[in-house]
Write a structure and sequence with these properties.
The protein has helices at 53-62, 66-87, 89-95, 102-124, 133-136, 138-162, 170-185, 192-221, 225-244, 283-299, 302-312, 314-319, 324-350, 363-373, 378-402, 407-420, 423-429, 436-457; strands at 10-12, 19-21. It is an all-alpha fold and 458 residues long. The chain has a domain at 148-387. Residues 12-23 have a biased composition (Polar residues). It is found in: Cell membrane.
Length: 458
């Protein structure tokens, strides 16, 4: 060692007046969980309260790995295959003489499950038995068409999740978007280059305002967003149902049926690749653009940083000078607008002959599963929407060719969400390594039990 080396210098600590020997002061501040002494009136260190349990649950779900997500989908497919085999008449018949000829039962199980998933693939991706290439890729266009509104609504739910909000009001936001657009734009009679964007924008604004009500009430009164969105869903449903059966409001002229006027021809999204692919319209590129905008907003903008900070720990964000109520309002405005986009895709692309209170088609609640599967990330939500769109498109072919109820696909979707929300279950089933949090919790439990035994022995 060099004897001429300078000894560590003593540096006065500007906060306490003490001297430290060549060491940096400990990090402090609201975002670290410990406030600085200068920030407190009493001159003592204060701890920022931990984030609410709701935020922790959302964060744990979002931080699951890609491997866990894939295995959750695989496991859900396996359970779905078991259900298909159990309910198949051929399998039930072969199982009656299982001990005499067990091979027949296994062959029947294989034919049932493989036939179901082959039909699902042919109905959602590509049909190898088609006579031409154009007909072969028709199932893929159906998948993209079904995925468009699911992805748009899923983006709204995912964005709210990132801010620590459970937005289960996409259904009501879709309904109000459709009603606002029909009420204000269906009778304008404008050319397509004006009618289409105006119809779309008015619907998005309607959904945003309906979602903004939730954000404003939560910001001002502290009411829970789950209760608010559920109640607003009911209000929106009954309001739209009343409007479509009331003459001179939204009811189609010349009929007593509870249905609105059809979407103006100039307000309908044209087919992306021609009339041979009617389900794939320009709505899908609009959804891709919305996904890009949401990704940039959350991951790259300063507003997105403040939103994410509120989602991680609103108490720390408030201590850092971020207006938490304002972030709640912004988040629900954006979420409602995205759900409104999903509603507009429904009446401008999917169902253009008129709508009623069921125009949401369950998309508002399916969007929750899409957001969970996508880990509340923009691009993850897009891929989750494509998966659920494929399941929906293929379920009809599976029912037509194999006689398997569409409900089986709904069960598979529910199982995917169940396994996504329980990463420890997936890791236990597939013997995956535990996360650091699980290891720490296990060590704490062991130490607690050991200390309890020592106390009992003493």
């Amino acid at each position: 060692m060099n004897d001429d080396a300078a000894p560590p210098q003593s540096v006065p600590d500007g906060t306490t007046g003490q001297e430290t020997t060549g060491q940096l002061p400990p990090a402090s501040g609201p975002l670290t969980g410990t406030a600085t002494i200068a920030d407190t009136p009493s001159g003592t260190v204060e701890t920022v309260p931990p984030p609410p349990r709701q935020n922790l649950i959302i964060r744990d779900i979002m931080r699951g790995s890609v491997v866990t997500t894939i295995l959750a989908i695989v496991l859900a497919m396996l359970v779905g295959g078991i259900l298909i085999a159990i309910t198949d008449p051929g399998v039930q018949k072969a199982a009656g003489y299982f001990f005499a000829r067990p091979g027949d039962t296994f062959v029947a199980i294989w034919n049932s499950v493989s036939g179901a998933y082959i039909a699902l693939f042919q109905g959602s991706i590509i049909n190898f038995q088609a006579a031409s290439f154009q007909q072969a890729i028709l199932p893929l266009t159906s998948t993209l068409g079904f995925a468009a509104p699911l992805t748009a609504a899923g983006l709204g739910v995912a964005l709210a999740f990132r801010v620590g909000l459970f937005n289960i009001g996409a259904q009501g936001q879709m309904l109000i978007a459709c009603a606002a657009s029909a009420l204000l734009t269906f009778n304008l009679g404008l050319p397509m280059f004006l009618q289409l964007p105006i119809t779309l924008i008015v619907g998005i604004i309607g959904g945003a305002l309906w979602g903004g009500i939730v954000g404003l009430l939560k910001a001002r009164t502290g009411a829970h967003e789950v209760i608010l969105t559920i109640m607003l869903n009911y209000i929106a449903f009954y309001l739209v149902s009343w409007m479509v059966r009331t003459p001179h409001v939204l009811q189609k002229p010349g009929t007593n049926q509870p249905i609105s006027s059809p979407t103006p021809t100039n307000g309908v999204f044209p087919a992306l690749f021609g009339a041979q692919y009617p389900q794939l319209t320009w709505a899908f590129p609009v959804v891709l653009l919305a996904t890009l905008v949401v990704w940039w907003l959350i991951e790259r903008s300063s507003l997105g940083f403040r939103m994410r900070a509120v989602g991680e720990n609103p108490n720390a964000a408030r201590a850092a000078g971020i207006s938490v109520p304002r972030m709640f309002v912004y988040a629900m405005l954006f979420a409602g607008g995205l759900a409104g986009l999903a509603g507009m895709i429904q009446i401008q692309s999917t169902i253009t002959t008129g709508f009623d209170g069921g125009i949401h088609a369950g998309i508002g609640f399916d969007a929750i599963t899409v957001a969970l599967l996508g880990r509340s990330r923009a691009w993850g939500t897009l891929f989750a929407g494509l998966l659920f769109g494929a399941l929906k498109a293929g379920s009809f072919t599976m029912q037509a060719l194999q006689g398997i109820p569409v409900d089986i696909v709904l069960v598979v979707q529910s199982l995917i969400v169940l396994f996504i929300a329980a990463p420890p279950l997936i890791r236990a089933i597939f013997f995956l390594p535990k996360s650091d949090e699980e290891k720490t919790a296990k060590a704490v439990r062991k130490s607690t039990k050991k200390a309890a035994r020592k106390e009992v022995a003493a």
